[in-house]
Amino acid sequence: MSFADLSPELKAAMPELRGRLLPNQPLADITWFRAGGLAQMLFTPEDEADLSYFLSRLDPQIPVTVIAIGSNTLVRDGGVPGVVVRLARGFNRIEVEEGCRVRAGAAVPDVKVARAAAEAGIDGMAFLRGIPGAIGGALRMNAGAYGGEITDIFVEARAVDRAGKVHVLSHADMHFEYRKSKAAADLIFTEGLFAGTPGDSTAILAAMNEITDRRDQTQPVRSRTGGSTFKNPPGHKSWQLIDAAGCRGLRVGGAHMSELHCNFLINDEGATAADIEALGEEVRRRVFEHSGVELEWEIKRIGVPA
């Protein structure tokens, strides 16, 4: 399904725009599930200033959705109305600063931050090696793995609001909770600043290699998946609840729950986004029926059904 082309009116309202603004662009190619529909408008800003300018000139009635590397995202088959902002090359800067700090753009993969910190002898960020995503998403969801989470290393973040105003957010502004931040929903994070402690590069890299080995052995890292599907409910592990409900390997259409790690949804036979979401909902139903525990999606689902 295609949408009305908004580009002529948007470009007319933004004569100084530098980024790419394209109508009816497929999103399946830029998400890890490789499924889903079109973006009505796909905007790739050149940098933070370009993003700020765009948002300041955009009709506030037009919805805005953000994607970076598309790891933790399921795009529904009917596509995404409004504008999808894709943070890419203009947001992939990474710098090591004094005081065991690392500054990273929102599009920098988490693993690259872990590696930069390790090579600089900064401890405390190795856990980022185990998170399949980019810094913007990690900030939004307080991403964590292997005993660490963003709140542990966070110093500050830059973000642009829906009106185009740039904000610098402190730890208190982020209101971190388990797998979420309660910072204003309209903020688009552009970079984060993180702090660790002095460490030994060799030891940190060894710890990262151990995380890599554990992931390879226990997670379907080379499959079309979005990462962990459901958050761990208080006092439980999602994969154990899913397994106990008999959902390991459960299939709907071209999607199935991984046999290796049953909290991972896999697109292995050309699944539609509807297949993937229906499977997730069936797992939620069976888990609740079996244990009385309601699973909460960790995968971000965007757009409209076909």
UniProtKB/TrEMBL annotation:
- UniProt-annotated stretches for the region Disordered: 214-235
Where located?
Cytoplasm
Secretion signal, residue range per the UniProt entry: none
Quote the catalytic residue positions.
R179, S228 (proton donor), E298
| Listed GO MF terms | FAD binding; UDP-N-acetylmuramate dehydrogenase activity
Every FAD-binding PCMH-type domain range: 35-214
User: What do the Gene Ontology cellular component annotations say?
Assistant: cytosol
Q: Which cofactor does it need?
A: FAD
Instruction: Quote the biased-composition stretches of kind Polar residues, using this chain's numbering.
Output: 218-231
Q: What class of enzyme is it?
A: oxidoreductase
Q: Name one GO biological process term.
A: peptidoglycan biosynthetic process
* Primary localisation category: cytoplasm
Q: Which family does it belong to?
A: Belongs to the MurB family.
Q: What does this protein do?
A: Cell wall formation.
Its protein name is: UDP-N-acetylenolpyruvoylglucosamine reductase
Per the UniProt record, the source organism is Agaricicola taiwanensis
